[in-house]
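Please, structure for the following, as tokens.
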Amino acid sequence: MAQFSSPLRLAGVAVFASLSACNSDPIVDLSQSLDASGADAATSSDAPTQDVNIVDGSTPDATGPDATVTDAAADVAPVDGSTPDTSTDASNTDAAIKPDAAADAATDAAADAKVDAKTCVDKCTLSTQQCSGNGYTTCQLQANGCTDWAPVINCAPSEYCSAGQCVTSCLNQCTSGTSKCASTTSVSTCGIQTNGCTEWNTATACPPSQSCVNGACKSTSPSLGWKAVTSGSQQELKRVWGSAYNDIFAVGKNGTILHYDGVSWSPMASGTSDDLIGVWGSGPKDVWAIESAGLRHYDGTKWSTPTQTITGVSMYDVNGTSASDAWILGQQGSPIALVAYRFDGASWTKHSLPSGISWGYSGNVIAPNGANRAWAAGNKWQIAKYNGTSWTATTGNNGYEAPTGIVNVGTDKFWLVGYQQLTYCDGATCSNVAAPAFASWKGIARVTDTDLWTVGSGGKIARYNGQGWALSGTGVSTAHLYGVWASGPDDAWAVGETGTILHYSP
């Protein structure tokens, strides 16, 4: 023992001797780690103290023997040789937290993949509201990551929906008859709703290769024109109407109904062999067709005789503004009188016209002009106005025979067409406008208030540009044309005798 001249070294040998007695494993001589002065080599740069942890939670003594623990704390076994418990050592190496970081990264990647893989389509703009019946619905984000309309919240009995809100008075959104681009490829038109308020109707998609510009679908192709289209029928077609460019109905002789789906025309089972002389609808699942003495209705699936029908009336024209505001004009009784019937969504109500408005053999027309306004014209172009309560006779134009077509172009403003006449009416004041050719004009359609089409005998087609009428499609057909309808400035259809169908498009 005399060989140890330092008390510290003597203490160290005593410790090792004691350990040797308790452990049969060979003892590693740690005396090489102690310098001659007794200082602990663990304070050197090879063993940073910030990585040292004591299992019992105490602060390591950087100057004592405990400091011999190295950076790899997780790899240092206890003196008794057992496996170290790293579960309670929050300061084990950085690798201890890597599994959590990897999980987070995997979760983020999965979320990104879910977004990238989203196959649904947004149906509305988040948080916007719109009316639905007598209630409103809000655009919400759904569980699939896309937006869609939430269930309808009904308004109170004393309220009605306008501009997506329950109100007691109108919040008119627009001017009836105007249009706007709902998107780059769809158009929305302002209409008078069943509550009497003006709101934007559901957007209608533009035809293929067209886009919406300034509230109208227009083609980017310069090669616009009329061309004949195969109808698959030889029956005379009287009228044509559509809910969209790819949902169009043409009706005619012997119960003929043809439908266009955006690609081709095909026959539909009408359920009647009577001549069909008019067609109009509020949408793809609410279409009316009139026979000379009966009604047909299409619900989106089939044509049938409606439970709400009219009897004893020779019908001439059908028109409307909504599913709860449809009108039919015809003749009834003895002596024969011109009568109108209005459908409110549940039943038809008879309206007697003034006695001065007589029926015309060649045609009689009606055009509702809002919830509480309508115009009708009969023989010699005599005109009657409905003010929401009753009908009154107006001056009219004393034209030849009776008009065969009518279209609204604003409040109390409309056009009438007939034999050699194109007539513009502003209220009760009507005046003839120069026609571009001699013809018996049969049908008229509105694109905008200043963009109209009319068709007539001998394949005549004319277009109005807000200043005057000009011929269009000269020479494409010589068949008499009776009906015309347009989905936009670059998409129009005309129908006529022997199954003739003409299409104006790029």
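Residues 1-99 have pLDDT under 50 and may be disordered. The chain is about 5% helix and 40% strand.
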